[in-house]
């Protein structure tokens, strides 16, 4: 486990690698940025005292190396066969599909998501947040230069939304629930790239904010599994309420903040005559909302009990409750923004 100073250095290098990748004007430079980002994240994941952390870091390393090697091979081959192959000049019509495949593997989009749940299950909450937000930024930005409406990308988007919705059903681990939710959101972000120029960046910022909010509240609540949400005392009920407010916002329930980007994307899809896709994606989002609501209903309606040995554990929970309220209030800003947007229209 790296020390605090080492963690800070690795985080700076991680963000620097991401910035190098997204600001590069060549594919070789973008690949180098991705590798710097990867080499900074692996030490943050590893912990010799925890077998699950080490296993997760090894899985992540193997998958990312496979994706990076494939990306480098394809970039070199395209550079050799074409006179000008830059981030914006894609060459042949098949180039976006060829180059996007390893980037989809890096970002954990379906059907390249097979590594994502297993890696997430072995990480700490802080590293889960990094994997679902910062580690997606560079591959998504690179894909935004290439992505266009074609059957391949529509299949990837549909697969991501379906897998993200169906995979989260009957899960008991909060990490796996958030993992499949992230896969579902990846499909929405890819659709945002197709339908709008910079719409996906707004979606990504809101998604990252909500994910970090949910993870912060879950960490403050010390919850890793669904059944732990039912073993709380009276002082922790406010924390539990804030946690599920954040989860429902992440699921896109109106009028929370998470509903806004999906609303904009549905409008853009309607303008681009993609109504069947929009209908399917909305249905899949309703499934994700179903298991969030099921967790919330079970947690609040079932009689809570607490052992005597745990009765003192939340006596000093005032600071935690205040922190959770501040974080979860971000989700409630969606109601204000919805009112403003509807009023201006």
From TrEMBL:
Q: Which InterPro entries match?
A: Complex_I_Subunit_2, NADH_UbQ_OxRdtase_chain2, ND/Mrp_TM
Tell me where in or outside the cell this protein is found: Mitochondrion inner membrane
This chain's function reads: Core subunit of the mitochondrial membrane respiratory chain NADH dehydrogenase (Complex I) which catalyzes electron transfer from NADH through the respiratory chain, using ubiquinone as an electron acceptor. Essential for the catalytic activity and assembly of complex I. Core subunit of the mitochondrial membrane respiratory chain NADH dehydrogenase (Complex I) that is believed to belong to the minimal assembly required for catalysis. Complex I functions in the transfer of electrons from NADH to the respiratory chain. The immediate electron acceptor for the enzyme is believed to be ubiquinone.
For this protein, the Enzyme Commission number is 7.1.1.2
Q: Which domain of life is it from?
A: Eukaryota
Question: To which species is this protein native?
Answer: Coptotermes formosanus (Formosan subterranean termite)
Name of the encoding gene: nad2
The record's principal subcellular location, in a coarse class, is mitochondrion
Family named by the database record: Belongs to the complex I subunit 2 family.
Gene Ontology biological process terms from the UniProt entry: mitochondrial electron transport, NADH to ubiquinone
- Residue ranges constituting the NADH:quinone oxidoreductase/Mrp antiporter transmembrane domain according to the UniProt record: 24-288
As given in the record, the signal peptide range reads 1-24
Output one GO MF annotation: NADH dehydrogenase (ubiquinone) activity
Q: Which reaction does it catalyse?
A: a ubiquinone + NADH + 5 H(+)(in) = a ubiquinol + NAD(+) + 4 H(+)(out)
Ordered alphabetically, the record's keywords are: Electron transport, Membrane, Mitochondrion, Mitochondrion inner membrane, NAD, Respiratory chain, Signal, Translocase, Transmembrane, Transmembrane helix, Transport, Ubiquinone
Q: How does it sit in the membrane?
A: Multi-pass membrane protein
* Segments crossing the lipid bilayer: 58-77, 149-170, 200-220, 241-261, 273-293, 322-342
**First-tier enzyme category under EC:** translocase
Protein name, as recorded:
NADH-ubiquinone oxidoreductase chain 2
Query: Which Pfam family name is an example for this entry?
Result: Proton_antipo_M
**Lineage of origin:** Eukaryota, Metazoa, Ecdysozoa, Arthropoda, Hexapoda
Gene Ontology cellular component annotations, sorted alphabetically = mitochondrial inner membrane
